[in-house]
Design goal:
The structure holds 2 protein chains of 2 kinds. By secondary structure, chain A is mainly alpha-helical. Helices cover 79% and strands 0% of the residues of chain A. Chain A has 11 helices and no strands. Chain B folds into 2 domains: 3-221, Rossmann fold (3-Layer(aba) Sandwich); 238-360, Beta Barrel (OB fold (Dihydrolipoamide Acetyltransferase, E2P)). Chain B has 9 helices and 20 strands. Classes of the chains: A mainly alpha, B alpha+beta. Chains A and B meet through helix 7 and helix 8 of A and strand 7 of B.
Chain lengths: 234, 370
């Protein structure tokens, strides 16, 4: 057991970084994810099919392509990257923030899909009832819709987190593989497999990766079940 | 409080063209399914925007398409009770009840939690979740939730339609108390003659998207031609009566009315209580002389005030019994044989057993609990 927990500082950093990147990616994706899910589930506008396709694009494209597109857009010389760096001091390229962006983008379709399905399952007549009681649309969303879609929200968030924990292609293309800055668990494992005698390290990180994923999954199950029991939908 | 509606709304093939005004305590929108009554109530609530027209409640304009006014539903302060309750599944009954309070300005909160909970008999349900309630209980909670938002007008969209007879009988007394003990005017959608006759002060009859008639309940219920075909047998006179005494030996209750004393099966009501009695036209026989040797206990003397053709082969005879109209539906042949005509003195004969809980509304001795 000792050899498993006896991680080198670099390995620990990879674990910590991965959790940080996945958490930030998940939390930052939630507001736009909910908004887009709402638009796709309820909106009636021209170009909805196109928007739906765009959201799903990272799921279909090779991750390298997504990473390269991110590099073109959010890199130092990319239009969005230059703008954000100049006006807000936010830099993505070759930083952990860039890894979080790549992971968030890759997990986004999964999150939006889960939330959208749960929004579509909400009985709009119940929302109308809240409206007749004096709640304006924002209050209706906060007090009725949001609690009712909570299980879907949790599922979407966990999917996004899990995807971020495993994301490799887009991340390494966009922000490379810099220890202590952009080297997440998958990148670290990849590095170990590229050097002689790295098998033991790769195995250690693989096991840790499995443990983190399992814990996240079980936590989401428990959470969703607790929410579901509280709700007892007819 | 006056509700005034004048709207035109197109829904596919169906056109709703309704104009009426009502100042009643409880106005029933009455008609068969598909007549547009639910659409109408949704328009008043603000759930639908009309193509053209104007709706106002007590002078406050809610919609006026000509003036480009549309008050959104959350600003209307109109309570709504839906056929399917629509309680919030993620909240307890108490939280459901409190929901509307939040959005009501403190100075306009006239509804008191304790009073409403007692009025509807739902105190024992407060901690439960909606999923754990019976249909009747859900509907009572839904009524309470609407009331506690302190609405200026209460709309009820067939609140009893999805309940069985026993549960209906369990809720009706609560709606009567609501009508009599609170000051909120109610608009009540129904296709049931029994409910309308018992609850409504005024009736607006809808037929194929148009107002076929509007007026006080007593007058409308006698117009059998206005009732939907499957409910026509339920039509007849509606009399306001008082419990005079109970005849325990024979299990009967004697009601006093303008038309005279009427004996009905024993009612679970106290002496002095008012009972709104519906006498189905098909249950009334006509005799030209005071009948003797007859088992029927109720014999009311009167004169024929109107003879109207009914559905073939029947005629409707309106008998003026001391100022109260009793309606009889008899065959064309009987009318011919008895030579009935306007102004003749006749006797209306009604069997005691023809009255049931649906027509006395008071519930017979065994009161069903919802």
């Amino acid at each position: 057991m000792n050899w498993l927990l006896d991680l080198t500082p670099d390995e620990w950093n990879a674990v910590r970084l991965s959790i940080k990147v996945a958490t930030v990616a998940m939390i930052a994706s939630l507001p736009p994810g909910i908004l887009l899910a709402l638009l796709l589930a309820r909106g009636r506008f021209w170009g909805k099919t196109l928007l739906n396709g765009l959201v799903h694009l990272p799921l279909i494209l090779p991750p390298v392509v997504t990473g390269y597109l991110l590099l073109l857009t959010f890199g130092r010389r990319g239009p969005a990257g230059a703008f954000l760096a100049e006006h807000f001091g936010i830099v993505f390229s070759f930083r952990w923030t860039g890894a979080a962006l790549a992971c968030g983008v890759m997990g986004f379709p999964l999150m939006v899909r889960a939330i959208r399905l749960s929004i579509e399952a909400v009985d709009r007549r119940i929302e109308a009832a809240a409206g007749t009681l004096g709640a304006n649309p924002l209050w209706v969303f906060a007090t009725i819709t949001l609690p009712l879609i909570l299980p879907g929200l949790i599922a979407g968030a966990i999917l996004s987190f899990a995807k971020a924990m495993g994301e490799f292609g887009a991340t390494i293309t966009f922000v490379s593989n810099i220890p202590n800055e952009t080297q997440t668990l998958p990148s670290a494992i990849y590095t170990f497999t590229q050097v002689p005698g790295g098998d033991e390290g790769a195995l250690r990180l693989t096991l840790i990766s499995i443990v983190i994923s399992m814990v996240a999954l079980i936590a989401s199950e428990v959470l969703a079940r607790r929410v579901g029991r509280r709700m007892d939908i007819e | 409080m006056t509700v005034s509606v004048d709207i035109h709304h197109q829904l596919g093939e169906f056109a709703l063209e309704a104009r009426f005004e009502s100042a009643g305590r409880l106005t029933a929108l009455f008609g068969p399914s598909g007549s547009g009554k639910s659409t109408l109530i949704n328009l008043i609530a603000g759930l639908i925007r009309p193509d053209r027209g104007r709706i106002s409640v007590d002078g406050n304009v809610l919609v006026d398409t000509a003036a480009r006014i549309f008050v959104p539903m959350h600003k209307r302060r109109i309570g709504m009770v839906f056929q399917d309750a629509r309680l919030f599944p993620h909240m307890s009954v108490a939280a459901n009840l409190r929901y509307g309070r939040w959005f009501t300005p403190a100075s306009e909160r006239y509804a008191k939690m304790d009073a409403v909970v007692d009025l509807l008999g739902i105190r024992h349900l407060l901690d439960r979740r909606p999923a754990k309630l019976s249909g009747g209980e859900k509907q009572r909670v839904a009524i309470g939730r609407a009331l506690l938002a302190s609405p200026k007008l209460l709309l009820m969209d067939e609140p009893l339609a999805s309940l069985d007879e026993a549960r209906k009988a369990g809720i009706l007394p609560y709606i009567e108390r609501l009508r009599d003990e609170t000051k909120i005017p109610i608009v009540y959608v129904s296709h049931s003659v029994a409910e309308v006759a018992r609850l409504a002060s005024d009736v607006v009859v809808l037929s194929q998207g148009k107002v076929a008639a509007a007026g006080p309940t007593e007058a409308i219920m006698q117009r059998l031609d206005l009732l939907p075909a499957e409910e026509r047998g339920e039509g007849g006179a509606v009399l306001d009566t008082k419990v005079l005494r109970h005849d325990e030996a024979f299990g009967m209750t004697v009601l006093g009315s303008q038309a005279g004393e009427i004996r009905v099966p024993r009612l679970a009501r106290l002496v002095g209580a008012t009972v709104r009695l519906r006498i189905r036209a098909r249950d009334v026989m006509i005799a030209t002389e005071q009948p003797t040797g007859l088992s029927a206990l109720n014999i009311l003397a009167g004169t024929i005030a109107a003879v109207r053709p009914g559905i073939e082969p029947t005629v409707e005879i309106a008998i003026d019994c001391n100022g109260a109209i009793v309606l009889a539906r008899i065959t064309e042949q009987s009318k011919h044989t008895l030579r009935l005509a306007l102004g003749h003195k006749v006797f209306a004969v009604i069997k005691t057993v023809s009255f049931d809980s649906a027509t006395t509304g008071a519930g017979l001795s065994v009161e069903a609990d919802g």
